[in-house]
Design brief:
four-stranded mixed beta sheet, 85 residues, alpha+beta
Length: 85
């Protein structure tokens, strides 16, 4: 049995057109990730639980305090939100 399975490589451009450009994904992020995205001057508590909306190509689009707000942001940007765990 051959166990050498090659994982397909998908470029950022391929991801950007995934779903015809209508998909976005929501991922829970912590304070460290938020600071990386927003810059060191942002004041985020260490135990913050935030939700980031990303375009299909991985571009961050918004950060919200609740999953519901992240879904609303996706709808506002005319994206179908999917979750990433």
């Amino acid at each position: 049995m051959n166990t050498d399975i090659k994982k397909p490589e998908v470029s950022a451009q391929d991801l950007a057109i995934l779903g015809g450009g209508t998909l976005g994904y929501i991922r829970e992020i912590g304070a460290t990730d938020a600071i990386k995205l927003l810059g060191p001057k942002i004041n985020v508590p260490d135990d913050a639980k935030l939700f980031c909306l990303y375009a299909a190509d991985g571009t961050p689009m918004s950060i919200s305090g609740t999953r519901e707000a992240a879904v609303a942001n996706a709808m506002e940007h005319e994206l179908l939100p999917v979750s990433v765990h």
